[in-house]
Design a protein that fits this description.
Blueprint: H1 2-26, E1 36-42, E2 45-48, E3 51-54, E4 57-64, H2 68-99, H3 105-121, H4 126-186, H5 196-210, E5 215-220, E6 223-228, E7 233-236, E8 239-240, E9 244-247, E10 255-264, E11 267-273, H6 281-316, E12 331-332, E13 340-341, E14 350-355, H7 369-372, E15 378-382, E16 387-391, E17 398-400, E18 406-408, E19 411-416, E20 424-427, H8 433-436, E21 438-439, H9 465-472, H10 486-526, H11 530-564
Antiparallel strand pairs: 1-4, 2-3, 5-6, 6-7, 7-8, 9-10, 10-11, 12-21, 13-20, 14-19, 15-16, 15-20, 16-17, 18-19
Helix pairs in contact: 1-11, 2-4, 2-5, 2-6, 2-10, 3-4, 3-9, 3-10, 4-5, 4-6, 6-10
Length: about 575
């Protein structure tokens, strides 16, 4: 009797619905889980004299509520958000260092020039002179400490980059493993049914990977291939192309990202990629922070140290000390004396560097070499027939007319040796200058506070003309093409860090809202609503009981027919 078939099909379908609903309830809080439902259809009908009589219902497959557009939109928003968070975590530390107005470089500059003013007022006072050297030591210490903090953060960034790269490679391996599991599940003889839970797990791995670095997914024959957003392959078919954190060819002190472009005898062939090509995820945030904030901050601090030392020394050497001796260097500082050669360079060429001193400046120009000094890094390349130089990270290339000796932004640069086509150099003139900033003057009596008369003789121990001029250096526009004083230069450094911090904070808040909106949209389609599932649970339980009753009715009718034969 067909009632048994009808009841059995309804019973099986209700059971499938009950199991799927229970699966949804159990996984409601699982990250990346997409709600599943049983797709059903009629089991057809048979033709009779009374018309077509239905054969019941059948479960076609279990499908997941998945919208690829909404999922990808959420993944991208989370990836960009992760970059802003990692950037914010780093810049907050630097902002705290520079924002303190009670300690640090800014008050040290003020106290030092106050002590210089005190010597100008009482040039022969040994206590004032000793105080000036003490304040100079404090200034040097504060500049050194600020630079040391930046160096420590740079080292920490290297460690984080290395760790994140290892995590990225681990995720790529797990996604490759999920590819294999999904392929096996589809080939296990259960028809064309999708292994929904495996697909969810793979999508979740891709989502978590994007929070480390932005990737693009290409699906072919049910398998995922992965590339960085800039195009470099991480997973292609069955082959994994791992990332590597390596010392940069241009600056071995900093870790760069190298992709695997292929293999030779089983060993990876590495290709270093530009930091600017990786923008999303935690890795992108770290690289962007280093390029946009940390490097310029350290360069600016170094320029301040160079500017103070050179300008102060030049003026100090025009004065006379307590013994009528000519002034000597008060501070000591250095800049990078040689541009760093790339490891791939084949020639012997080296670029030697020095800042243009006052006696080397153009006499017709009001801008000194120190005033022209920038806080930028530079790249030099040789293309076989010409040398070119540009300011990093995105300056235009300028041809070098005389590589044997040329000027650039307050620097005098000259080539020694011979280069070969393709050779590259990285110049960071002020990167480590703050670390070298020291007080050369140790004897208070050697402070050259006195000026000279028309005949060039010292005006005596009671004269403080040069000390007065030294005190005026605090507010004179000696840096930034004659637009900034020492205080201005440091304030510009502090403000740039503060502005970058504020911009990142604002962007992070906006991105958080966007993530919440995208998540809500995605969950509206794919999320599990427990209240809805409870309702469906009751409905399917009723269907199960009704199907059971249908079989019970069929059994009763069958017993009745058998009873008629007796």
């Amino acid at each position: 009797m067909n009632l048994f078939g009808l009841g059995l099909s309804a019973l099986n379908t209700a059971q499938n619905n009950l199991q799927t609903t229970g699966h949804n309830i159990n996984n409601a809080a699982v990250e990346g889980y997409n709600r599943q439902s049983v797709l059903t259809q009629t089991n057809g009908a048979r033709a009779t004299g009374a018309g077509y009589i239905g054969r019941g219902v059948q479960a076609v497959t279990v499908q997941r509520a998945y919208d690829g557009f909404l999922h990808n939109q959420l993944v991208k928003a989370q990836s960009d958000g992760a970059a802003l968070v990692s950037y914010g975590n780093e810049i907050a530390q630097l902002n705290n260092l520079f924002a303190d107005r009670t300690t640090g470089v800014s008050p040290a500059i003020q106290k030092f020039f106050d002590s210089v003013q005190a010597v100008a007022s009482t040039p022969a006072d040994p206590a004032a002179r000793q105080e000036m050297i003490g304040r100079a030591d404090s200034l040097a210490t504060q500049i050194n400490e600020a630079n040391r903090f930046i160096d420590n953060q740079r080292h920490n960034l290297n460690t984080q980059i290395d760790t994140v790269v290892a995590q990225i490679n681990s995720y790529v391996e797990r996604i490759d493993d999920m590819n294999q599991q999904i392929t096996k599940a589809k080939a296990s003889g259960v028809g064309n049914h999708a292994p929904n839970d495996l697909l969810d797990q793979r999508d979740q791995l891709v989502s978590e990977l994007n929070q480390l670095v932005g990737v693009k997914v290409l699906e072919q024959d049910g398998n995922f291939s992965l590339t960085l957003n800039s195009g470099q392959v991480l997973l292609g078919g069955p082959t994994i192309y791992p990332l590597h954190a390596v010392p940069s060819a241009a600056d071995p002190k900093r870790y760069a990202i190298a992709t695997t472009s292929g293999f030779i005898n089983g060993k990876p062939v590495l290709a270093e990629v530009a930091d600017t090509s990786i923008k999303s995820g935690q890795l992108g945030g770290l690289l962007q922070y280093r390029a946009d904030t940390l490097d310029p901050a350290q360069n600016a601090l170094g320029r301040l140290a160079v500017g103070m030392a050179v300008e102060f020394n030049q003026l100090h050497k025009q004065g006379f000390d307590l013994n009528s001796g000519v002034g000597t260097d008060f501070f000591k500082v250095s800049i990078a004396d040689t541009a760093t050669k790339a490891h791939s360079n084949k020639g012997t060429g080296e670029f030697k560097v020095d800042f243009i001193r006052e006696d080397q400046d153009d006499p017709d120009s009001d801008v000194t070499g120190i005033a022209a000094l920038t806080a930028q890094d530079y790249e030099i390349k040789f293309e076989g027939n010409a040398y070119h130089i540009r300011a990093l990270p995105s300056g235009g290339w300028d041809e070098i007319d005389k590589p044997e000796g040329f000027e650039k932004d307050g620097l005098f640069i000259k080539l020694e040796g011979k280069a070969q086509e393709g050779d590259v150099w990285r110049l960071q003139p002020t990167r480590n200058s703050a670390d070298s900033f020291k007080v050369e003057m140790r004897d208070p009596s050697k402070i050259a506070a006195a000026g000279k008369d028309d005949q060039g003789n010292a005006l005596g121990t009671a004269n403080g003309d040069i000390a007065l001029d030294l005190a005026k250096l605090q507010s004179e526009k000696t840096l930034g093409m004659g637009s900034m004083s020492f205080n201005d230069a440091y304030s510009q450094l502090v403000n740039r860090v503060a502005v970058n911090s504020q911009q990142n904070s604002t962007a992070a808040k906006a991105q958080k809202n966007l993530i919440q909106q995208n998540y809500a949209a995605q969950q509206a389609v794919s999320g599990v609503n427990l209240n809805e599932e409870y309702v469906m649970l009751d409905r399917y339980a009723d269907q199960f009981r009704a199907a059971s009753r249908l079989i019970d009715v069929g059994s009763t009718l069958f017993d009745t027919i058998l009873g008629l034969r007796n």
